[in-house]
Each structure stands twice: as structure tokens, then as C-alpha cells.
Amino acid sequence: LIIDKSTMTNQMRVEVFDGKVKAIMIFPVVIEGEYKGRIIFIDNTKERIWSNQEVSFARSVTDAISRDISIKKRMSRLKDMSDAVKGLFQDMPVMFMVRDNKNGRIIYANEKIKKKTGSSLIGENGFDIIPRLRDELSEFSSPESYSEVVRFTRYIEQLQGIYEVREVIMDWEDDKQYSYLAILPEDTNREEM
Prior knowledge:
Layout: E1 2-3, H1 10-15, E2 23-31, E3 34-43, H2 52-90, E4 95-100, E5 106-109, H3 111-117, H4 133-137, E6 150-156, E7 161-171, E8 177-185
Antiparallel strand pairs: 1-2, 2-3, 4-5, 4-8, 6-7, 7-8
């Protein structure tokens, strides 16, 4: 809504603006298709007509604010989902960790694997515990997609036993690829998992 010298009536000036506003621009703040508020630009110094540059600037400011709020809302939802997923991983009855798929750095480990290794594991090289399963398997077969679960049984020195490892590669909180690794003792009943 743009009201200036060319569109403001005396009735509007008196009833709506109490005689104090000379020109006004009102732009809606719309976030994810829903009206959330408005940005108001007021000139109460003189009657005037808003220039095209002023209208364009006001629209740009409103659009930038709307985008910024929308991005912050999405980031907040992602963090909430991430916290919920971490809680789920924490309560898993198996050892579980997440590592950076490029450098092997562990970014998450549940209490079960921390207790078994006697270490927090965060920041350590996860390839030292479990090498890249996909690299080892690539000479025999290749998974159809990164989201496919790869299963592999091996002796893991740091855990002092034979374990079935299940790995899937997905994004974590950023857009980087991470390996999600569930580590089960070999004698675990696979039908239960």
C-alpha cells in the first residue's frame, strides 16, 4: 500500500493519520506464504510523491527482512530436528557415531560407544576405528546410492571384538556428507534390528 500526495484524501489524513502523516508506504512481511506483519515507511515532514527508487528500495528492504526471518525459522526448525535426532541416537541400544565422510572426524558419538571406548571420541579420526566401508566394498560391489545401508562384519580393535557395522551416508546439520554408523556385536539377533 502506497499513499502519498497523489492518493491521500483529506478524510484519510484526518481520520487515519490524525493529520500527522504526509506520505506512507506499507509493505507486508510474508514468510512461507503467510502474512506475519508489515514494514511501514512514513514521511511526516512534507506532502510528496514517493519516487520509483524509494518504492523499489522499500520493497527490497521488506523482501530482505522477509527472507532473513524465513531463513532463521528454517534454521531453528533444523536445529530442533537435529536435537531430536541426537536424542534418538543417544537412546539407541547399539553403539552409534557420526563422522565426516571426507576427513573421518567424529562429530557425534552416543554414550554406549563412548563408554565402550573410554573416550568422548568427538574430534577423533573415525577411520582409525572403522575404515571407510564403502572403499573396502567398492572392489566387490557398489551401493546404488549413498542413502543405501551398507552392512559389514569385522573385527574392531578399539572395541575388542567382532561387530556388524551398518553405515549410511547422509547430510548432518550442514550440507556436508557424513557417515552414520551403527555398531552391533556380531551375536546380536539381526531380526530384532
